[in-house]
Structures are given as C-alpha cells and as structure tokens.
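Fold these two proteins, one after the other.
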Amino acid sequence: MNTVTIIGAGLGGLTLARVLHVHGIPATVYEAEASAGARAQGGMLDIHDYNGQIAVEAAQLMAEFSGLILEGRQQMRVLDPDGTLLLDQPDDGTGGRPEVQRAELRQLLLDSLPAGTVRWGAKAVDARSVGTGRHEVTFADGSVVATDLLIGADGAWSRVRPLLSDAVPSYAGTSFVEVYLYNADTRHPAAAKAVGGGSLIAPASGREIHAHRESGDTLHTYVVLTRPQEWFAAIDFTDPAGAAARVAQEFTGWAPELTALITEADTAPVLRPHFTLPHDHRWDRVPGATLLGDAAHLMPPNGEGANLAMLDAARLGQALAAHPGNVEKALSEYEHEMFPRSQAVATEGAEMQELFSRGTSARDLVAMLTGAE
C-alpha cells in the first residue's frame, strides 16, 4: 500500500486519516472547501459511547475530546405542543452521549494530523479505475491524482460512490428548516426557558420542533416537516421573514414559547432536505476502493450519522493497520462489519420516522423514552 487517498475532510475522513497516522500509515485528504473555516460546520453532536467515542479512542484523542464537552447539555425535555412539560431528564454527568460542537471536534481532528495532510480547495469531480486496484481522481481545476487506495468520505453526493455502486440518493420525505437564536436568556427568555439547559423535542403528526442549547447562550432550532419537496419549493427562502412566517403557520395553535423558536430567529431560515440511500445499500468488493459515512449509508438525521462515520473510519483504519500487506483483506473485513451495522441503524431510524409521520404524539414519545406502557 503506497498511496492512500481520502476524499472529504468531514469527521469521517479526518478520523480515518488520524487513525492511519496513529499506526504510521500516511494518507492525503482532499477537500472541496477552500479552508477549514470556509463555512459553518453545523451545531452540536452527541458522541455516543457505543460508536463515536470508540472512534475517538482509536484516534488516541480521548483526553482532548473530554475538554470539548459542554456540561449539562445531555438534559432533555419533551413538551406537548401546548407547552406542557412531559419529560425533563437532567444531565447528571453519567450519560453516554456527551455533547460537543461539531466545528470544535473537526478542528481537534485537523490539529492532530501532520501539516499538509489536508489539501484544501480540491473539489473531486470524477473518479475512475485504471486497473490493478488503482484509481485516478480528477479535480475541478483539471488536476489528476493516482492512488493505490481510494476512500470516499465525501458525503451524500459522493464522486467516489459510482465506482462501487449505482445507488443514487432519493428524497426521504422530510426536511429541516434551521435557525438560530442568540443571547437567548436575555433576548428570547420564553424560548430559552422552554429549551432548558440541553435539548427540547416537541413532536406532533408530520411536524416537530427540536432545539439545542449550544455554547455562548445560543439556541439552535431544527424545524422538522414531513412535506414533499414541491411544498418547500413554493416558499421563497430569499425572503427570511416571509419564509419564517410560512413555516410558523404549520404550528398554528402551538405554545408561543415554542413558535418563538421560529418567529424570533436571529438568522435567516435555511432549508435542509433529507436524502437517503437504500437501507441495505452495499456493493461487491471493488479492488482498491471503499466508502464510509454518508457516502456509504446515507440516512435522514437520527443522531447517528456523525457517530457512524467516525466508527466506520476507525474500523477501516484499524483493519488496514492489521493487514499492511493485504489491502483487499482489510477492505473486505471492514465492509463485512460495516454493512449490517449501518443497515440496522438505518432501519431503526426509518421505523421511528414512520411512527412520527403517522402521528406519534409527545406523550407517545415520552412512553418510548421511559419504557412506559
């Protein structure tokens, strides 16, 4: 194994590069973004002790990771649309899902890599086999890189995936509308009180409000709507006030402290449609190439995406280190474990989404979370 090329500097690609580095295997990561700070990296992530934290341990970064944890953010509240508090689970410090800011976790991984590992401003546009397990990647600037091992960690619209699979993402039936409220305790006190110190879920049939308290007194809200893409296309998101008002109409009659999370937003609403690959997506072994994260098993948000990508990366890196003279054995071992793991998570997430689309209420959610009949 002479050259290892990773496409995509998200959490999965960077975790793989780090685990390989720990084992003395150099790799190069190519990323379309111009720099580490070229765009916002999203909000908080709960990194689970049964997948994401295993990857952090494999990357030998647990001490540094612990310094990123936002204390108290594992608190979870469930509210009825009328504002009734149905569940308030405190963060007692014993949970296995500590919250960190995605951008800070990404920066931790970047800082752990040798200088020059990530090539910024390198947008992959095509990948092709050149025989004997080798591949070439073409970038938007016309440059071409040949590699002995190619890993697609490049997300939903992966340019590497077509080498292995004909699968194309399809709309999952739901979308987020994302907004932020800043200085919430002083400027948006009712909404801040509703969210509490961690996260809030307020579900109803075909629509939900999720909010998280992030660092710096910021509330990050995801409005979840089960609507066709055409419904969203009819909203003019270039008119922030109008778009927020239209989305808020879907929550007419809800408690004002909940709708304030939409109507009082300090940022323009951002539409984030959800796409999915088949739950049982897999491919026949292709010499010298594989996928991880969303490139391999795209699914609607269910709290597992980043964790799965990182665990994929850790397992792949460990397999390559365990079989230094046999890349194909390493890739087969990795895929044999990854396929059923991702299928199980995707199936469980789809079942939960179906429950809510059929009308699961806040009280039903509390019953599921607490094990009540």
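Now the second one:
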Amino acid sequence: MASHRRPKQTSPRYTGVLTATAAAAVVLSAQTASADPLPDPNKKGVKAQVDRLYEQATQATEKYNGAKEKADALTQQVEALQDAAARRQGELNELRDRIGTVATGQYRSGGLDPALQLFLSEDPDTYLERASALDRAGERQSAVLQQFLSEQRRLQQQRGEASEKLRDLDGVQKELGRRKGEIQGKLREAQRLLNTLTAKERARIAEEEDRADRASARVELGNEASASGRAAAAFAAAKSRVGMPYVWGASGPTSFDCSGLTSWAFRQAGMAIPRTSQAQANVGTRIDSLSDLKPGDLIIMRTDLSHVGFYAGNGQILHSPKPGAQVRYESIARSGMPFMWGVRIG
C-alpha cells in the first residue's frame, strides 16, 4: 500500500534552481507542442460531455415520440368527431326541411300548429325547455320533432367533445415544441463542444464511431433460428437496416431513432407495437434474464427505459444507438447502458 506523507516544504535555496527548471520546461513544452501537440486532458472530458448530451437528447427524443403519438391520436379523434358532427348537421338540416314542409302545409290549410311555431322560433333554448309542447302536434309530426331533438343533443355533445380534444391537442402540441427545443438544444451544445476540438481530435472521435459501425459487420450472432413468428420477421427487417443513420424522431425506412427502428420492423412483420421504448417495455412477455433471451426479443435499456433494440444473440444488441451513429450490432456489455429486461412478442 502506498504511504500517504505530507509533502516537504521547499527550501528557499532551491528556489532559483526550480525557477530555472520551470523556465526550461516551458521552452521544452513549447518546442514539443510545435512538433506534435501533447494530449490536453481537458479534451478527454469533451467526448464524455458530448456522449452525455447525446444520451440526454435520445431520452428527450422518446418523450417527444410519446407526445407525437398522443398528438397523432388526438388529431384523428378530432377529425372523426368533426366529420360526425358535419354529417349530423346535414341530417338535422334535412329534418328541418321536412318539418318546414309540414308547417307550410298546415299554414296553407288554415293554421300553424303551436308546436311548430315553437320549433321555428329564433330561440332554440326556449324550444328545448318547452319540448312538452310536442304533445300538441300530431303523431307523425311528434316523431319527427323528437328525432330532431335527439339529433340536436348528439350534435351538441360531439361538438363539445371535439372542442375538448382540440384543447388537449393544443397542450400536446406545445409539449412537442418544448421537447423539440430541448433535443435541438442538446445537439447544438454537443456540436459546440465538438467545435472546441482540433480537426485531428474530431477525426479521432469520428474514427471511433466508424470502427464501431464497421465492427458491426463482423459480429458473431447466436442461433437466429430460435426466433419465432412475428419477432423473427421483425428482426429480419431490422437487420436489413444496418448502416442507416440515427435521426431523432425518425421511424424509417432510411433513418431511425431507437424505438423508430423497432416499431418500423414490427410493422414490416404485419404487427403494430407502441412507438416509444417505455411503452414497448410493457408489451409481450417480460424476460428478466439476459441468458433467457432469444434473437428477435426486444431489449429495454436504461433505468428510465429510454432505449430499446433487438437481441441479436451472443450478447449483442441490434439498435440505432445515438446521434452520429448508424444502425448496428453492438455488445450489450460495452454499450454503456444498463440492461433492464427483455420483451418477447409473438
């Protein structure tokens, strides 16, 4: 064990020697730098910071994907409600025309039924409040008027639901804007940090990513025949995307984020799964042990469940890892992300 001793105080008689030595060191350092710059220890921290920003960007991307999925669903619901309301309004207009025809006939025959007078008034609220006046109309007229009232209530309900969904959609779209700004901010900050490096240092980082991408083509996978059903077809589709770039929010066919790759692959297999990694973590059968996984199972990574990929066998994950990388195979142990559990689908 190394001893921990308090450093000795420097004697004044050594001051001149140390000063001269320091000066010589400065000159030597300057000469060495001009020939071949020594590594700056602070620069090593830049890559770690960039990797952390990329991780935060991918985490924010999954939140963006969740909001986008919700916004798309709300948009469909609003459109369906608005279409239904438009159809019901058309039906109401037809009923109004029928009632108007009856009223015209009564007027020509010598008088207008009080119920029809009430209906044709400019104040529909009063009409609804005094709907008991319908019993003064004939049986046929009463049935038409009752149908009109029922349709009118349903129309008002649909319009109310559509308005509520529109308010929800507005809130989700604002969240989308916030998430998008957060992601773009992380990526801008990462680029700013990369720009503080020299061209040689940036090339070194890029070469590390290139090596990881190239190594993907040489991995030894497990027994892929053990995959079955839809999972096997989805895994095959994902394998065809190796080399495609990571792009946040993308779900194929030429660029992907992590859950974009897995959801796209299952669509090719004829099966829809949720868009986000967090939602994908809760479909199918949960597999808690890495040793029990089969190729084609989903792998859920990180404690916040913000990353997902396919188990490829032999301890490898097939995934779209992060900005600046491609869809590739990678050792789960070396991915830098903790394994949470697997999901078997189909």
